[in-house]
Amino acid sequence: MADTAGKVIKCKAAVAWSEKQPLSLEEIEVAPPKAHEVRIKISATALCHTDAYTLGGLDPEGIFPCVLGHEGAGIVESVGPGVTEFQPGDHVIPLYIPQCGECKFCKSPKTNLCGKIRTTQGKGVMPDGTSRFTCKGKTLAHFMGCSTFSEYTVVADISLSKVDPKAPLDKVCLLGCGVPTGYGAALNTAKVEPNSTCAIWGLGAVGLAVALGCKAAGASRIIGIDVNKDKFEQAKLFGCTEFVNPKDYDKPIQEVLVELTDGGLDYTFECVGNVHTMRAALESCHKGWGTSVIVGVAGAGQEISTRPFQLVTGRVWKGTAFGGWKSRDSVPKLVKDYQSKKLLLDEFVTQNLPFDQINEAFDLLHSGKSLRAVLHL
């Protein structure tokens, strides 16, 4: 790949010109990496609901036109000045939560939310305040510091994890977001204990990854909650032991669950991004010690509510991003867990499609017939 180093690369990308419109396959120009940046040839990228959330106009930080995508994997094409940890040919996964190792967040064991490039990332630009993407003379914004819906992308070196080259990129790309988010919500954020009871709202990829985490932690009951009963059989594979469909009851789901579990659950997880199910998940927790974790992202401007008495009587409400994993430290370990069959990944891939079928992949995501569609570039 060395012959392209230092040059602008022309390649194919799926451009989001505006919200609520299908993506457009375009030829874009990708500039060389600047200081502490890495240019990557993306091999595979998956679709996550966060991409659909932004494309659907629900993201307060949504900027258009842009190159979406944040669950990808690829191979380093070239590195900018000052980059010491990566070289061309390295197999890598871009990270939407970086890890600089220097800020107060990175130095704290209590969080994984690196603050180093948060401001520029939210504005859709690289840390120096500019973009590396242009198309038809227009500048395109970056997305979540990753922009994997392109044959080539540029990321900050602190937003990148080097992984074992023997790991299949079209599987480990899932470790960019959804699977670690759910898996870590159970293991790191909730710290699920052996023989505990758990309930999960939403049995998409993230919810099923939560089930994997609860199972790994030794939970005795893992209740999957979804209005689509077609998801139940598949969810058993990931660790769910029983299921509840809220449509089957004429009373609030929290009442159903409190009765079903002798006073409520030890741990609950909301993976839908709906403020009403967030309340239901908290109120399904056991008095005195129940913990509820918000994993799903609600739309811009929405607020959560509950009676303060729910918290006064000992329930805990928490949130999680990327499952609490310190990204650059953890992703290579998660790859190893996959390779040693401790962590399921293949089972999340419901479709493998060529990159030019990206809009069809979004349709599958919205239809509920897809856990993860992986696009091959």
Our count of helices gives 12
The biggest sheet amounts to: 7 strands, mixed
Structural class: alpha/beta
Residue ranges: pLDDT <50 for 5 or more in a row? none
| Total beta strand runs | 18
Measured distance between first and last alpha carbons = 16 Å
Q: Give the integer mean of the pLDDT values.
A: 96
Rg over C-alpha atoms, rounded to the nearest angstrom: 21 Å
The ordered string of helix (H) and strand (E) elements is: EEEHEEEHHEEEEHHEHEHEHEHEHEHEHE
The portion of residues assigned to helices is 25-40%
Quick one: overall form? globular
Strand content: 15-25%
Walk me through this protein's architecture.
The protein is α/β, with parallel strands linked by helices. It is built from twelve helices and 18 strands. It has helices spanning 49-55, 104-107, 118-122, 169-172, 178-190, 205-216, 232-236, 253-260, 275-283, 308-312, 327-339, 358-367; strands spanning 9-16, 24-30, 37-46, 66-67, 71-79, 91-94, 133-135, 138-140, 152-156, 160-162, 197-201, 221-225, 242-244, 267-270, 291-294, 316-319, 349-354, 372-376. Strands 3, 5, 6, 9, 10, 17 and 18 form a seven-stranded mixed β-sheet that branches. Helix 5 packs across helix 6 (205-216). The longest helix has 13 residues, at 178-190. The mean pLDDT is 96.
Task: Note the topology.
Blueprint: E1 9-16, E2 24-30, E3 37-46, H1 49-55, E4 66-67, E5 71-79, E6 91-94, H2 104-107, H3 118-122, E7 133-135, E8 138-140, E9 152-156, E10 160-162, H4 169-172, H5 178-190, E11 197-201, H6 205-216, E12 221-225, H7 232-236, E13 242-244, H8 253-260, E14 267-270, H9 275-283, E15 291-294, H10 308-312, E16 316-319, H11 327-339, E17 349-354, H12 358-367, E18 372-376
Parallel strand pairs: 11-12, 11-14, 12-13, 14-15, 15-16, 17-18
Antiparallel strand pairs: 1-2, 1-4, 2-7, 3-5, 3-9, 3-18, 5-6, 6-10, 7-8
